[in-house]
Amino acid sequence: MGEPLRRCTACGGWEYGGAPSCARCAALVDDIVEDAWREFLTRMLGTRPGVQGAGAGELDARGAGGHVPGAGSTGAAGDGRTAGDERAVAEMVAEEPDRHDWRVFDAALDRLTCDDCGDRLGRGLAGCPGCDLAHGFRYAAIETDRSGVPPGNEHAIRVNVSVVRRPHGISAPELLGRSLFLPFLLAGALPTTRQAQRMSALLKSGVTREEVAALVDAVSAEFSR
């Protein structure tokens, strides 16, 4: 199915659901694309990537600082991979989004710099021409539902991850809803249109994060699986 639901040791909510304000949850969301990138890079270069992700165990051990994609000039000891090799692969992926999984494409953009704003490509403020263009290309990449999940689950994960990782220009109610729903989507659930509309109306009514989180927990058993 998908990821089991676990409580975040930093914010107390469900893991992933505290992003982007909870640094630990934000790092876990980053790992959704980073894990796919490491596997892809290994296939492409035949070496073991040296940049380790910020999984739950590592974060518990080292705190909630997260990591910088592509950090360091070389790969793991003895693998011979350089930052230039990784950047070349990232540039190739960025030029052909329709040939790669969306997680790999998102991670590739993280390794490139926007010429307009200097931020990671696609992660700059809304209104930056280069980032807006790259952000739009995200949805040309491939998405494939996991085995045993409702059709559309992967698309929902993709959209929610995109919003949480680039929240610029997103309303506070929408960001809150997408972040709180993400753990359940990763677990293999998918709200119906009626359930999503109900949550949207509630969020727009000005309720607190705690009230929304309690309702999400209460209705999660109703989600399509």
Architecture overview:
The chain is mainly α and 225 residues long. The chain has a domain at 149-225. It is 50% helix and 0% strand. It is built from nine helices and no strands. The chain has helices at residues 23-45, 56-62, 83-95, 102-110, 129-137, 153-165, 172-186, 193-204, 209-219. Helix 7 packs antiparallel against helix 8 (193-204). Residues 49-68 and 70-78 have low confidence and may be disordered.
Summarize it.
Mean pLDDT is 82; it is low at 49-68 and 70-78.
Give the SSE map.
Layout: H1 23-45, H2 56-62, H3 83-95, H4 102-110, H5 129-137, H6 153-165, H7 172-186, H8 193-204, H9 209-219
Helix pairs in contact: 1-4, 3-4, 6-7, 7-8, 7-9
Jot down its keywords.
50% helix, mainly alpha, single chain, 225 residues, 9 helices
Low-confidence stretches: 49-68, 70-78
Report how far the terminal alpha carbons are from each other.
9 Å
Q: What is the helix content?
A: 40-55%
Order of secondary-structure elements:
HHHHHHHHH
Largest sheet entry? none
Number of helices: 9
Q: Radius of gyration from the CA trace?
A: 18 Å
